[in-house]
Write a structure and sequence with these properties.
This protein has a single domain, classed as 23S rRNA-intervening sequence (de novo design (two linked rop proteins), Up-down Bundle), CATH 1.20.1440.60. It is 85% helix and 0% strand. It has three helices and no strands. Helix 1 packs antiparallel against helix 2 and helix 2 runs antiparallel to helix 3. The radius of gyration is 15 Å and the shape is elongated.
Length: 94
């Protein structure tokens, strides 16, 4: 029971961080300045990095789901790379 409760807490955090990515990208569309626009993408990147963390925790605690979690990890890493690249471009550092 205790392990299940802990796992649900981790999954809740994972859902929060993963959904924050898209929410911040959408929020960027209504930003009032370029600086604000970039800021929302930076928050989305931080949420992507947090999502990676929670997926790693889940992968370590649920070995039976390792393959599926590994696939999700690869996708979130790719998304984080896209966000980071976009931020660098927007800041004129690329």
């Amino acid at each position: 029971m205790r392990k299940e409760r802990i796992l649900w807490s981790i999954i809740d955090q994972l859902i929060r961080s993963a959904t924050s990515i898209g929410a911040n990208v959408v929020e960027a569309k209504s930003s009032s300045s370029k600086k604000d626009y970039i800021h929302y993408f930076e928050i989305a990147l931080k949420s992507a990095n947090e999502t990676k963390y929670w997926l790693i925790i889940i992968k370590e605690t649920m070995p039976s789901s390792k393959e599926e979690i590994e696939r999700l990890l690869n996708e979130i890493i790719e998304l984080a790379n896209i966000l980071a690249s976009g931020i660098l471009t927007m800041k004129g550092k690329r």
